[in-house]
Structures are given as structure tokens and as C-alpha cells.
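Quick one: C-alpha cells for this chain, please?
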Amino acid sequence: MPFAVRDSRGKPCPIRIESYTQGPPQPVGESPWEFPDPRGAAPYGLVAEGGAYLPSAIVAAYRRGIFPWPHEDMPYAWFSPDPRAILPLDGLRVSRRLGRTIRSGRFWVTVDRAFTMVLEDCADRLEGTWIIPAYMDGYVELHRLGWAHSFEVWLEEELVGGLYGIAVGAMFGAESMFSWVSDASKVAMAAMVQHCRAIGVELIDVQVVTPHTARMGAVEISREEYLERLAAALQREARWWPGDGAGPSDREG
């Protein structure tokens, strides 16, 4: 394998990953709405309100550097904050302890084996969730069409962590994650970086930085710099689908 995650001491900790991605993304059609240039938005990032979470609209928004983010008082809201958070492909931070956990083989990871389960678990929060039914419907359809992807972390045959997002060109926009046992979401992030590097992703967008993502290496860049990096990533295509499109295949780790 050309790339393996390394811990803070430089020791390799490759993650076992099995891809279930079936094939290249299918056409989503034209968005019924044209999104404005996000450069004109205030720093907190609200670009537009309204519309619907159609696959065509979500893909069009991401191509403009905009992502959907429902709020209680704005169920259909589209954002492009300044600064923007990314996870550099060469900036992942894996602690020695997490490295030992990965090397132990306690967890194994799949791609696109249980997308809807990951989405539902990300929405299962005691404090409430912004992942509303209309948003979920849009992303389930995006997954069916080959644009949205999930990383599942398993403990034996139990789903214990994961994350999901959308791939456009050579950009992957990670939307949300969950963890039911210690370290599961960290393993999901590490697996995301390993897999993204292996398939040619050039930009991982994590939208807004959190203490958790910052500990794993997420950084903030200006919106202008993000849009420049996005424009470059959209000129290329990451290959999410393995082999002839019949999964599972292309095991990593």
C-alpha cells in the first residue's frame, strides 16, 4: 500500500479497510437554483436560505464552496464560513496510544457498507441534531447515486463509529461523525485520510474546526484560500470505486 497512517513517533499503523463502493457517480442533473458567490457572505458563512436538499443542489453548492447546514429556525440553509476548516492530507495527528489501538486490530473499517446506518447514528444525539429528515433523504439519494460516502468502524460485527460526507472531483467534504466506544471516531478519521490519499483525494473539507478535529490535525484557512484549493481539486477526479465496481474489493491495510 503506498500510504499508511503513522503515529506521533513515525511508526506505521495501517488500517484494514474494505471498500464496498459500487461505481462512479451518476448524473444528478442541473440544480434548479443558482448559488451566489460565497465571497460576499459574512464571516459566519450564511450564503443562502431556502430551496431543498436535492442531490443536484447539494452537488452544485459544494462546487461553489457551499454546504448545507440546517438550523432550527432555518431548515434549508447554505453556508460557506470564513475561515474554513480542512484536514491536510499530510497533517493527520495520531497519538502513540491511538496508534497502538489501530495496530492491535481491535477495529476494522469499511467504506460504503452501511451509509444509512452511519447517517442515522450521526443524527442520534441527546442534545438534538441538525440532521433533519429532508437532509437525510437528500444524502441517502446522493449515496445511491455514488456521490456520498461513509466510513464505518466495526468492533467484530457491531457498528461502533463512523463518518460520512460527499465527494466532488478530488475533494471530500466530511459532514459528521459518531462514536459509541472510545477511539472509534478517531479511527474513522484516520481511515478517511488513509483511504483518501490512496484514491487521489486532494482536499478534505471539515467545514468548521472543533476541539476533536483540531486534535486530529484540522486547521483553519481563509475562505479565499479554500476556494482556490477547491478550484484545483475540482479539476481532477478521485477514484472511489474499486476495480470493476463489484465490491467488496481493494482491501487496504
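Residues 170 and 201 are 4 Å apart (CA to CA).
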